[in-house]
Amino acid sequence: MQEIAERLQRIEESLNTRMQKIEETLLGWAETLSAAGKKDQKRQNTLRRQQYREVKRRAQEGLYALPERSMLSFRDKQIKPNIHDWAQTGMRFGRADQPEQFIAWLVHQWNNCTYIKKPITFSGSSFRIWTGHHRYAFGPRDLMGYVERRSALQILRNDAEYDDFMKRPWWDWTTHAVFAPVFHTMLEMGFEELPERFRRCCKIMVGGAAGYEVYTDLEWDFHETKENINRMLVRMGTDLQLMLRACYRGLRVKGTTSPVTLPPAL
Q1: Are 263 and 93 in contact (CB under 8 A)?
Q2: CA–CA dist 213, 192 (Å, integer)
Q3: Would you call 133 exposed, middle or buried from its count of C-beta atoms within 10 A (0-12, 13-18, 19+)?
Q4: Residues ≥6 apart with Cβ < 8 Å to 178
Q5: In degrees, to the nearest 5, what angle opens at C-alpha 97 toward C-alphas 188 and 200?
Q6: Residue 162: what pLDDT?
Q7: Which residues pair with residue 120 across a beta bridge?
Q8: What is the domain partition of the chain in residue ranges?
Q9: Which residues contact residue 191 at a Cβ distance below 8 angstroms, ignoring those fewer than 6 apart?
Q10: 266 versus 197: which is more confidently predicted?
């Protein structure tokens, strides 16, 4: 019995030794695999970063850096080559008699597809306008007088509302910085031959320089007297509200996909 016990003990010691060697071998393999996995993960992360940078580089090809100027009032010379193309597309919308779709498309094209960073972002309930060194917050009403629940722009009840109306920042974008150059280029392309409502809505957004006669001897201008503006809003306040709604729609789009479908080219 003593001999059997000793033999069993030797067998047990031998098995323990072998098990220890096996555990050490497995541990070594695990460490090797872990190191290889980390290297592979590092390679994958490096490749992913390279792919992201390449996609970003391609996406930014042909885009412009934001100038150190207020984007609503500054007529950026960088986008001069774009004006002609935008005007050509505007003529397509014009022939289809789609003024709201045109200005929604133009706003989106300018804001989402022209610069490396968007001139106007949206956060919370406010638009954030690039002013050259930082972004300034405007609500839709402060920016352009747009109130979603209204079907027409309301008349100005007092001098404070009149002053606010004349100084809305969005008028700089429509009458000077972006929309006006596109409009004047369209004039050279046969704009006056387009449907009457399309021409009317575009002229409303351009303001006094467009020469839109609302009443006999009374042309639309964002800087007319309060009495004359109120009188004209009775006739064309609905069109102005619809155009502002389209501007709002264009500004709220996040990506580069157009919010409207382009009319067919003739």
Answers
A1: yes
A2: 14
A3: exposed
A4: 75, 79, 106, 110
A5: 65
A6: 96
A7: 129
A8: 1-61, 77-252
A9: 91, 94, 183, 199, 202
A10: 197
50 has a pLDDT exceeding 80 = no
Structure tokens at 223: 């800087």
pTM of the model: 0.78
Range from 55-59, 61-65, 96-100, 156-160 carrying the lowest mean pLDDT? 55-59
CA distance 79 to 76: 6
Question: What type of residue sits at position 218?
Answer: L
Quick one: average pLDDT of 193-202? Answer: 98
pLDDT at 21 over 80: no
In single-letter form, the type of residue at position 125 comes to S
**Nearest alpha-carbon partner for 73 in 3, 154, 174:** 174
Distance set, CA 109 to CA 41, 67, 139, 192, 259 (Å): 39, 17, 21, 24, 10
Euclidean distance between CA atoms 261 and 162, whole angstroms: 36
